[in-house]
Predict the structure.
Amino acid sequence: MKTRVLFLSVGVLISLTGCGQKGPSTSAQPETTASASATQGGGRTIEITANDQMKFNITSITAKPGEELRVVLSNTGTIPKEAMGHNWVLLKSGVDPLAFGAAAAGARETDYVPQNLKDQVIAVIGLLGPKQKGEVSFKAPEQPGDYPFVCTFPGHAALMKGVLTVK
Ligand code: CO
């Protein structure tokens, strides 16, 4: 009898722990446009995934001028960081993401964000390996327009890019 009670207690503990965990999401997300989610302190949260197929699941974000945003990037892949790392770099309006990506190839020491081009950058989530997650909070620009974002890991910019539209 006593053994059985103990066993049940352990079972309850395990399920409680399981509920509290925030494991990697495996659900498919067909949408490519970010939608608003609960605002919590750091502003509206936009969750983006990056994978081994060199794809961001979200390529279009819309924000109001000056809106507080929190972007969370999850690398859902399994390939090692040295071969398939992902970052998220939001660029100023008018900056060519492909040119920036090409220039970034030589900046491995700084997670492929060239320090001499920092004035073209609005926000950065540093390079992530498989199953890693990073985030950045920032204010959307006040100036309406299109602001490109890109992964600057060598060879990724052509496939891994999108646009933050401020309007
Ligand atoms: Co990438």
In short: Strands lie at 44-50, 60-63, 68-75, 86-91, 121-128, 133-139, 145-150, 161-166. DSSP finds three helices and eight strands in the chain. Confidence is low (pLDDT under 50) at residues 1-31, 35-40.
